[in-house]
Amino acid sequence: MSRGYFVTFEGLDGSGKSTQLRSLAHWLQAQGHRVTVTRQPGGTAIGDRIRGLLLDSRTAGLDARAELGLMFADRAQSIAEVIRPALERGEIVLCDRYTDSTEAYQGGGRELGSEVVLKLHAAMCGNLWPDMTVLLLPDFAQSLERARRRNARDSGKGQDENRFEREDERFYRRVYDKYREIAAREASRVVVIAGDGGIEDVHQRIVEAIAGKLDFAIKG
What is the dihedral of CA 114, 38, 144, 173, to 10 degrees? Predict the structure, then answer.
């Protein structure tokens, strides 16, 4: 059995990445592919506990390097428990966030730099990189506003994952700029979907990108 195919979705909260991941999963399943969907942080019992700690706005005083370590603890568990087994079964794995998020948010937003993130990735993740990364880069201000509206709505339902949304615009600008830096550096892996197209338009652009990549992977 051939190895599966690993796809990650990246972008600011409010970029539409989770919606597009679900749409791609449905499309791939309709084509007859076996698909595993997961997210980071979370996606495992241990990871969901780490997610609660990382994203809850009541988590106060968490040092940036402690935050970085928790992100990689979650990721190592996800790789061992979900991602590698699914790839070994020949499945397509779709993951909502991965190491690019850590480089953008902790490396860029927290100003820890890329080097420490990439070294931890090599050590903690066995240097497992996606075959393809979909990076959604809609308008910066609109993306941030959508994220804050959504989290305010979720808070009213008793869900609190707002710790990062409390950061100021300068933090998010550093994250956004780091994503653009990653895209330029990893041009062969990262597919950038820029602008504010409609949900269906963006979905079609993603379908075209992965169809080309999967055709290459199968024939190669």
Answer: 0
